[in-house]
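Q: Predict the bound structure with pyridoxal-5'-phosphate.
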Amino acid sequence: MTKKSFSRRGFMGSAAMGAAGVSFGSSSSAAAATAFDPVPLERPTSIWDLPTPALLVDEVALEHNLDKMTRFYRSKPAELRPHGKTHKCPIIANKQLERGAIGICSAKVSEAEVMVDAGIESVLITSPVVTPDKIARVVALAKRSLEVAVVVDQAHNVRDYGDAAGAAGVTLKLVVGLDMFGRTGIAMGQPAIDLVATIDKTPHVTFAGLQAYAGHLQHINGWETRNQQSVEAMTRAVETKAAIEKAGFPVPVLTGGGTGTYNMDSEVEGITDVQVGSYLFMDVNYRNIGGKTSAVYDDFRPSLLVLTTAISQPRAGRVTVDAGYKAVAADHEPPALYDIDGVSYGWGGDEHGILQFRNPSRRIEVGDKVLLIASHCDPTVNLYDHFHPYRDEKVTELWPIAARGRSQ
Ligand SMILES: Cc1ncc(COP(=O)(O)O)c(C=O)c1O
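A: Predicted complex:
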């Protein structure tokens, strides 16, 4: 199987421009350009001196994760098209592209706009976009970068894109989303073939491939079960790909997969690229699902941490910290203490968390700062304006989370 992107040119252009920190969209002013760049601090600052709650990135762990995933895929036929919804940060997107990723995924139009504004050309919007205003924005993006593509799963949506792209004088790349777990997508088999045929006969749009994202399988506990179900699901997607090709439509891309199945998707022949996201940060949710040889999923290191301060101790055996729902995503299990054993975090409301002491490996007193491993990385990132990247406990710059809040 050959490696496929929407094109290699997209990646080369993106990496080069990202590294130079130039080439922003025509609508961007010079002031807006800085919104994507690192913001230097006046002086190196110890992480323990940061105002809390603060979002930290352990750069050594982040680089380990980036490099490990890159090395793993280097020997595989598939490539990496990481999902930018995890970090929402062009600086991190460029680290992925510099290491050879063929493009970046964005969940929504507004997220994609940030990436294109920052000079990233190859962007796949992974959710359907159906309203005329947003269709117009997708088409406008495609005018700025020929490497922009968007997922579709309905025939009328294809026609709407054709009309809008025709009016704008552009040809838009459409990726057909397959229904993997009832969230979005078209049924595999004949309905998918019919949708590809609709794209084929609609002017101003081209069929760029298939998306098969098995989101329901990413967090299955236990590697063996996850592997068996994932290979089964992705094999069905590969069969649909073959059926579409048999019907006469070449399928250059079959994209899908995530962190929970990264070393399973790599083994399914026919998948061209994987949309891994959380591997960068490895949150508590992911650590709990189990790896191939360990109870903790530790293929990648936790790198996304929330620094919080103990602010009150109304009762013995516990202390209250200043990080609650507004500082750490609360949709799944709570965050974990990073480097202290025998203490657990419990929710204490919008602004607070309660650390319960069982047998603490270190004393925590009012005024002390502690590090939490984020519970669920994507929505935690979306709570902050900046990452504080650090090495040797020192922060020298901030990384803007430029697509923070871009959920439209
Ligand atoms: C369409 C799509 N692709 C890829 C991902 C990345 O998955 P993960 O963070 O599990 O690697 C997501 C995450 O929700 C997604 O929605």
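A: The first strand starts at residue 39 and ends at 46.
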